[in-house]
Amino acid sequence: MANQYDDDYDYEEEEETQDSSGPANLRKALKKAERERKALEEQLTAVKSNLRERSVKDVLETKGVNSKIAKFIPSDVEAPEQIAAWLDENADVFGFQTNEQSQPTELSQDAITEQRINNSASTGVTPGRDEDLANRIASAQSKEELMQLMGIVGLGRNR
After folding, report:
1. Can you tell me the distance from the alpha carbon of 2 to that of 27, in angstroms, rounded to the nearest whole number?
2. H-helix or E-strand spanning residue 146
3. 4 vs 1, 7, 8, 25, 107, CA distance in Å?
4. How far is the C-alpha of 123 from the C-alpha of 148, rounded, in Å?
5. Are 34 and 40 in contact (CB under 8 A)?
6. Is 60:66 a contact under the CB 8 Å cutoff?
7. To which H or E segment does residue 86 belong?
8. How far apart are CA 82 and CA 74, in angstroms?
9. Residue 137 backbone phi and psi in degrees, to 5
10. 86 touches 73 (CB < 8 A)
11. For 97-126, what is each residue's pLDDT tens digit?
């Protein structure tokens, strides 16, 4: 039973407009689409490869690691974060220290030195004459040096 959407006239018109070479045109279109898809896949593969190489190179440079290690990084490790994590994980195998391993000691030494300089500059007082003399007396190494500082050198020989 036909409904309002079925119209025999429409079906007949579509059949008459198609060529007898319809399947041949479809095969040609399919082959063309497959060639285009293959070319796009090759381009995508090349772009992914270049992007990975660039990411690996950048991460190795930022970590200060020899670029020859790039050939040992697995091909499924692509993102820069993954590459950095892989390098941190395998740092002991290749005999290098990651930035995270080497920086804290350097930063702590620098921080300690800077703090010491800041403290002495801000709280340091230039010693007065009496304090300077007392410091020199306290650090005297011999009896003669002590006597010279106290001004007794001339008195000791005269007696």
Report:
1. 34
2. helix 143-150
3. 10, 8, 11, 33, 82
4. 31
5. no
6. yes
7. helix 80-89
8. 10
9. -65, -40
10. yes
11. 665 544 444 557 777 777 777 777 666 666
